[in-house]
Specification:
By secondary structure, this protein is of the alpha+beta class. The protein has 15 helices and 19 strands. The strands form 4 sheets. Strands 5-9-10-13-4-14-15-16-17 form a 9-stranded mixed β-sheet.
């Protein structure tokens, strides 16, 4: 096969590796530092002062320093369609390299794209969930640029007429970060195809191209620059992930690249209306990393302002390095990229009807924001509200438990407490548990009517999560019915007091904390089945000498 030499990147013959095909490219020393984020190698700038060589929470206090940050996010959401955006190839994360490709997604001459209708449906769902204005007529455009993992030499995207724009996203900040409601603007939502992936060698001398991801449908969601802290930006990204999962249009897994966030950060003196010089940050694989990367970058830029070195803040792309907790220069941006957009000639306009949009609107599930407001109206704390609405499976389990008559606060406490702790230890999801919402509601009812104690309920809960069954059958099988006979409990109390005369004398001498010791001994004797209410009442009376 002929070799193609272009800007120091030489494409060699296809190599077979692990039963898949790799296209291998060799990189010149300069080309190595202008590659995408995936596996990129970077050199630490020698001029970075030691005082800013660590991520710091001081960025959260930038207003006290006379500056504020301006933050916007570009989020790429990979859609979970059966086939790719413009061909019939499937996409399965983790497949053998170059095993789910065809002439169309490999960019062979003479092939024509065919739009996957499911992509449009997913785009309209997300746009409606983001309160956007829908473009009833939109179009695709060619975004021209050269890169080894972009076989056509252009990306099919949307430029001047996206499918939706002018939206907003509501969210609640976690209580531990100060709480409060926020609304962030959404500039636009548009459809596009993904590029392939470069797999860089450890030596950095060559890269292999995997085109499985080429042509996979994406939605790009561009926010307004409305965020001011790393926490706000991270929570915005997390809310986008919740929306995607609630709608069922994607899995939102950042570790798989199914949701990718590129952050734009600048700082300016408080009161200044003009934006500062914008810096883009990439290579963040979790929402915690997004928060830390932004906080570091804010502090870095403020430091340069205070040192009268603001001219060193240039428009560039920087990479977040998790190990050093710093951002590094990836590439400079001397001006706006000229992608030479023009309308995609092989695809017709996307024309929607009001009936189509209304049908999708009516099919939308209850979204996270609406669910949080409903839970809040139940009297639940904001901490409970945010936890329960964070995962649609948890929210569904909670709602189903309430439908069976359970008290909202008690159901929330059991789900958020013992149930979540057990599932976390066993590395299970709530929908993988064998406990049903009906049985959780039955267990809560059994506690309220005095059939079992809270301590016994914990034992029953573990049994039901692991093995399933009913509350009634577990109680009968293990003889766990609570002892509610006053005479039986009184006998046990008297026996414990008689066996502990020294502690009884100390209690009556003023060491009243020993009441807990006596209660524990009675519960031990009853195997946890004594009614706590009756026990405390009878024990109190006996300790007073009645």
């Amino acid at each position: 096969m002929a070799l193609t030499l272009l800007r120091g990147i030489r494409t060699q013959t296809l190599l077979r590796a692990n039963a898949g095909l790799f296209c291998t490219t060799r990189l010149s020393p300069l080309a190595r530092f202008t590659t995408r984020v995936e596996g990129v190698q970077t050199i630490e700038p020698k001029t970075v002062p030691k005082s800013i060589q660590r991520a710091t929470k001081q960025a959260a206090e930038q207003k006290m320093q006379g500056f504020e940050a301006v933050i916007g996010i570009e989020t790429h959401v990979q859609l979970s369609t059966i086939t790719k955006a413009f061909c019939s190839c499937p996409y399965d994360y983790g497949s053998q390299p170059n095993s789910t490709v065809c002439p169309t997604c490999m960019g062979h001459p003479g092939t024509l794209p065919v739009l996957n209708a499911k992509v449009v449906e997913c785009a309209v769902k997300v746009a409606l969930a983001l309160n956007c204005e829908i473009s009833m007529t939109s179009k695709f455009d060619r975004k021209q640029y050269f890169y080894p993992d972009l076989p056509k030499g252009y990306q099919i995207s949307q430029f001047d007429i996206p499918i939706a724009d002018k939206g907003y996203l509501d969210l609640d900040l976690p209580v531990e970060f100060g709480g409060g409601h926020r609304r962030f603007g959404v500039t636009r939502v548009h459809m596009e195809e993904d590029a392939g992936k470069l797999l860089h060698s450890e030596s950095g001398n060559y890269s292999q191209v995997d085109l499985n991801r080429a042509g996979v449908p994406l939605l790009e969601i561009v926010s307004e620059p409305d965020m001011r802290t790393g926490i706000e930006a991270a929570e915005y990204g997390a809310e986008i992930q919740r929306l995607v999962r609630y709608l069922g249009v994607g899995n939102g897994n950042m570790q798989e690249g199914s949701l990718r966030c590129d952050v734009n950060v600048s700082v300016r003196p408080i009161g200044q209306s003009e934006f500062g010089t914008k810096v883009e940050i990439k290579n963040m694989n979790s929402f915690n990393e997004i928060s830390r990367a932004i906080d570091y970058e804010i502090y870095r830029q403020i430091h340069l302002h205070k040192e009268s070195q603001a001219d060193q803040i240039v428009q560039e792309t920087r990479l977040w390095d998790e190990s050093s907790q710093k951002t590094f220069t990836m590439r400079k941006k001397e001006g706006l990229a000229d992608y030479r957009y023009f309308p995609e000639p092989d695809l017709a306009e996307v024309v929607l009807t009001s009936e189509y949009v209304d049908e999708i609107r009516n099919s939308l599930p209850e979204l996270p924001e609406a669910k949080r407001r409903r839970y809040e109206n139940m009297g639940l704390s904001m901490q409970d509200v945010i936890f329960l609405a964070n995962d649609d499976n948890v929210a569904h389990f909670f709602d189903s438990t309430l439908e069976h008559g359970a008290d909202a606060k008690l159901a929330a406490n059991w789900i958020m407490g013992d149930m979540t702790a057990y599932l976390k230890d066993e590395k299970l999801l709530i929908n993988e548990s064998k406990l049903t919402p009906l049985e959780l509601s039955e267990m809560i009812a059994s506690i309220k009517n005095g059939t079992i104690s809270g301590k016994i309920a914990k034992e029953i809960l573990v049994e039901l999560i692991a093995k399933g069954g009913t509350v009634k059958s577990v109680i009968e099988e293990k003889d766990l019915i609570q002892i509610a006979d006053p005479a039986a409990i009184e006998a046990m109390v008297q026996k414990v007091l008689a066996e502990n005369p020294k502690q009884l004398e100390q209690y009556r001498a003023g060491k009243t904390k020993l009441q807990g010791y006596f209660a524990g001994q009675v519960m031990k004797a009853s195997k946890g089945k004594a009614s706590p209410v009756l026990l405390n009442k009878i024990l109190g009376e006996k300790l007073k000498g009645n």
